[in-house]
Amino acid sequence: MKRGFKTLKEAELALARLKLDIANGTYKKKRAETYQEVYDLWVVQYENTVEESTFVKTTGILKIIFCLHWGSTKLKSLLWTYVKSISMSGREI
After folding, report:
1. pTM (2 decimals)?
2. CA-based Rg of the chain, rounded to a whole angstrom?
3. What is the pLDDT along the chain (93 residues), one digit of tens a residue?
4. Locate the AP2-like integrase N-terminal domain: which residues (predicted)?
5. Are residues 50 and 82 in the same domain?
């Protein structure tokens, strides 16, 4: 979903294109494919649900743990067993 249109006409044009794509069966919903994309989608929603200090602490931790280490990793390529092996080995992420 696109946001931040400069004019009403621009937004209406985008809506018309979207409706046409749906009607033609060519619309593909954007899906998060990497951990960074999931984080980016989540953080927008999370920001409005907690106090600023909680938001800053939580997002800081997640950036270090997930985004720096796995940010560009495709979701389907990171197996839970790999994550578990790191946490069980005591290695720093």
Report:
1. 0.48
2. 18
3. 566 678 899 889 989 998 998 898 887 777 777 778 888 888 888 888 889 999 999 988 888 877 777 777 777 766 665 666 666 655 554
4. 2-26
5. yes
